[in-house]
Amino acid sequence: MSARYPAIGPYDHGLLDVGDGQRLYWETCGQADGKPAVVLHGGPGSGCSPGLRRYFDPAAYRIVLFDQRGAGRSLPSAGDPGTSLAANTTGHLLADLERLRQHLGIGRWLVYGQSWGTTLALAYAERHPDRVSELILLSTSTTTAREIEWITRDMGRVFPAEWARFRDGVPPAERDGNLAAAYHRLLEGPDRAASEQAARDWCAWEDTHVATHPGFEPSSRYDDPRFRLCFARIVTHYWAHHAWLDDGTLLRQAPRLAGIPGALIHGRLDISSPADIPWQLAQAWPDAELTIIDEAGHGGGVSAPDLIVAATDRFAGR
After folding, report:
1. How far is residue 26 from each of residues 18, 125, 145, measured CA to CA in Å?
2. Nearest Cα to 166, choosing from 147, 149, 150, 179?
3. CA distances (Å), origin 5, targets 36, 48, 169, 312, 313
4. pLDDT for 271
5. How much is the pLDDT for 1?
6. Burial (Cβ within 10 Å: 0-12, 13-18, ≥19) of residue 281
């Protein structure tokens, strides 16, 4: 039985103007005078879900959730084909985090990230270590060129038929190149039918490469055409540019995390984000504790919520 806390709603929420015509949806839950914690969702482009609130004791934490640029309830939505992604980069998201922290009057906060959110969390903590009290990372990735190539091409060795369909979703001349960039060109092109098909093909592959553990069920979120387009546009935009990060920089700069307690939670069967990624991070960051769940894939499976809650309780002094 999961140790997650009961479902709660926000006690405050709003849209924060961060410039560039962008307004970020944010919400706070739990105790207004509690220990601050911010949640960084995956994708990029997934948006936050109410279940993420339940990882934190609402009697102990001031829980901050927000939808990153273009995602979820933030405006303008990348689900609208006319929304430009020019002002949507990792640098913009890091600046948004600081604006949100200042807007809410928070000095330091625990940072929780999952999947893509772990890349963003590490980039933020390495840039602003004095603003981070602890880090909890689920399904760690660092969005290197090798990791993107692994997901978009090398995973074809595990799912060959599905990958062939994914590869064949782009024009023949682009099938041996950067597949994320090729899909991004289709998604940004003027042909609406082609962009909608590219979104379907991309999301079908997303749902495939995480299906490495028993009991996997496809995600119903990809049934929504607006979500499909939003998600596919943002993730291919980031992956086509390797998240605007110097390759390998997050691991090289891990010593900047010294003194920040961390919990790394990862599935052994997560071959979308192989376990060597958090293992290497833990070697460079002695304050982090790595837990690998043998039976779990991407997202940590049924055991992950218990481990996340154990970490948030520990960091709350429970």
Report:
1. 12, 20, 31
2. 179
3. 17, 17, 42, 11, 11
4. 87
5. 40
6. buried
- Whether the CB-CB separation of 173 and 150 falls below 8 Å is answered with no
Q: How far is CA 304 from the centre of its chain?
A: 16
Residue ranges of the chain with per-residue pLDDT less than 70:
1-2, 318
**Largest separation between any pair of C-alpha atoms in the chain:** 57
Task: Provide the residue count of the chain.
Answer: 318
Give me the pLDDT at residue 318, please: 65
Active-site residue list: 115, 270, 298
pTM of the model: 0.96
Q: What is the CATH number of domain 12-143+244-315?
A: 3.40.50.1820
Query: What pLDDT, on the 0 to 100 scale, is given for residue 218?
Result: 78
pLDDT at 42: 96
Helices (H), the chain: 90-103, 116-127, 145-152, 160-167, 179-188, 192-209, 225-240, 249-252, 276-284, 304-315
Residue indicated by tokens 């600081």? 98
Which of 124, 163, 121 is closest to 139 using CA atoms? Answer: 121
* Contact between residue 114 and residue 137 where contact means Cβ atoms under 8 Å apart: yes
Residues of the chain with CATH 3.40.50.1820: 12-143+244-315
Q: Where does residue 250 rank: exposed (0-12), middle (13-18), buried (19+ CB within 10 A)?
A: buried
Report the pLDDT value the prediction gives residue 2, as an integer from 0 to 100: 61
Three-state DSSP at 262 gives strand
Here the tokens at position 194 are 């082609």
